[in-house]
């Protein structure tokens, strides 16, 4: 996961990570294993359908091995994206 974050930065993305291992998530969330992160801003724009970067950001995360990618259109993710890797 950390390698993926570095890759995203190297590709010119700026983003604000709002959750890693802490916070309040679903019982079996990969956040608690340190395998997930949430982002609410990409390239200075809040994540929502109007942000032109979130789809490409999630696509790159999948290319980097992410197995969970949620964003606008997914229940509970209209204002942020969630990215996680397998255990």
What is the terminal separation in angstroms? 11 Å
- The class by helix and strand makeup works out as alpha+beta
- Average pLDDT score: 89
Number of helices: 2
CATH fold-level assignment: Muramoyl-pentapeptide Carboxypeptidase, domain 2
Percent of residues in beta strands? Answer: 15-25%
H/E element string?
HEEEHEE
Q: What's the arrangement of secondary structure elements?
A:
Blueprint: H1 2-10, E1 15-19, E2 36-42, E3 45-46, H2 54-63, E4 68-70, E5 81-84
Antiparallel strand pairs: 1-2, 2-3, 2-5, 4-5
Describe the structure.
The protein is of the alpha+beta class and 87 residues long. It has one domain (2-84): Muramoyl-pentapeptide Carboxypeptidase, domain 2, CATH 3.30.1380.10. It has 2 helices and 5 strands. It has helices spanning 2-10, 54-63; strands at 15-19, 36-42, 45-46, 68-70, 81-84. Strands 1, 2, 3, 4 and 5 form a 5-stranded antiparallel sheet that branches. The longest helix has 10 residues, at 54-63. 22% of the residues are buried. The model has no long low-confidence stretch (mean pLDDT 89).
């Amino acid at each position: 996961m950390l390698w993926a974050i570095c890759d995203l930065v190297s590709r010119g993305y700026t983003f604000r990570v709002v959750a890693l291992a802490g916070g309040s998530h679903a019982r079996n969330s990969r956040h608690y294993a340190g395998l997930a992160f949430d982002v609410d801003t990409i390239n200075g724009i809040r994540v929502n359908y109007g942000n032109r970067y979130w789809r490409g950001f999630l696509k790159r995360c999948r290319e980097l091995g992410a197995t969970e990618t949620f964003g606008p259109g997914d229940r509970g993710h209209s204002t942020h994206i969630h990215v996680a890797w397998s255990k």
